[in-house]
Input
Amino acid sequence: MINVGRKSKDRVAVNASENIVPYRRILVPVHGTEADKRAIELATLIGTGKNAEMVLVYVVEVAQSLPLEADMPSEVDTGEDVLQGAERWARQTADGRVGRISPELLQARSAGAAIVDEAIERGADVIVMALCNHMRHGQPTPGETVPYVMQNAPCEVVVARVRSGCDR
Output
């Protein structure tokens, strides 16, 4: 069991039992909020070093009314910007715990399905996601992506529910 808690703004403490399975292929979906930083921090903490790879994934969701290959320049530009920022943050926080960091921009009908497909294709050991609860009908809801990934992922899923940093 990993117990991750913040001791200070700049330092994260990790207590782990000796029988933790090392994660070499880590998939981190990002969506352009401060919450992405928490998911990336957690992913770097569970990486196994120079042999570990972190794949940062941004999914441009395409409406059913458009062809899947539709040209969506502003959404793609946003995705590329988000991935650049996430990659920069991952490199700053990795500190040797992750050998390779790769950005991946996907275009799909459903973010959840795209994340699961990417995890299958890459043979991911774990998916690390941030969860921002949004209000719907006066109740907090996790949306559609996180529950879909948790139900369908071929690997372990680590979800960090964040209290702030959910707005773009």
User: Anything to note?
Assistant: The domain at 21-161 is CATH 3.40.50.620 (Rossmann fold). The longest helix spans residues 73-94. The two ends are 32 Å apart (CA to CA).
